[in-house]
Amino acid sequence: MGGPLLGAVTDRRGPRGVLVATVAVQALFWFGVPGMPYGVLLCAAFLGGLSMVPVQLVTRQAIAAVTTPGQRQAAFALESVQGEVAYLIGPSVVILGAATVAPGVVAWGVGALIAAGGLALAALNPPLRAAAEEGAGAAGRPPRREWLGAPMVAVLTMIFGTTTLLGGVDLAIIASLREAHQLSWAAVVVAVFGLASVAGGLSYGAQSRPLPGWLLLGLLGLATVPVGLAHDWPWLGVAVVGAGLLTGPTLAAMAHTVSWLAPAGARGAATGLQSAAHSAGFALGAPIVGVVIDAAAPAGGFAAAGLAGLAAALIGWLLSRRVPAADSASFVR
């Protein structure tokens, strides 16, 4: 919910004020986490979620502003790789810290890192529009109907499907290894998945031409469905490589497409919707796949995650086919 709101404010006010304000809220939230009763923590977490420091929102707009069209595929691929590296390192560091020092100290440390990163980005104050686009802000935000059409809805649907798939895969890995009594190897399998995604993202960024987002997501879904056939950790580690290699390119292609379709005056709102679709998929992916795992088996979790990706790819393809061929829709067709 917070992404579109912060994106709209960023379009009007610029990034620095939004970053400073959200850093202040996050600092208060994380400082108070250790002393909050559970009910209070739920309410505070909702408010904290509305005001997450919009790092991705700002950096993705800045990438679109400071790169040429020919550079953006590589730039967004690198941004996707950076996210995978953070995903590989961050949770492990936090879990290790919580196991060795007081969890409250870890919460303060997380808050301090968020504040430091947000303030550093505010100090940089990156440009969100290219020099040729500076007049877009003065001209006002373009009507939503001009940019939130079938192509943008297609890519937002595919972003939601991608993260639904990824959130489900994480849970299915845990469930499969728990059933095999090999849960201690989960970190290794997840690391293999993440490293494969990094390799795929770097390879995609080196290519000269983008691939359609619906094609990459469809292939990711197809590669995910049979992963559940692996029944112990070595084979599961091998099985997730194919899906991992397609994860980085899929995420990079989606970010690239949003930046291409969004006009400069509404890029913050569009990027905020991208963040919302991204977060919603992760939030819903695990519960949806969890229901399937409970009703069937861990292998069914991988199948459900893959089919969710395939369904989103099909919807994205159908929506993109409804508009005439044009430069603004070329990346989702």
UniProtKB/TrEMBL annotation:
Coiled coil: none annotated. It comes from the Bacteria. Pfam families: MFS_1. It comes from Plantactinospora siamensis. Keywords: Membrane, Transmembrane, Transmembrane helix. The chain crosses the membrane at residues 39-59, 80-99, 105-124, 153-177, 183-204, 211-229, 235-255, 276-293, 299-319. This is MFS transporter. The keyword Iron does not apply. InterPro entries: MFS (IPR011701), MFS_trans_sf (IPR036259).
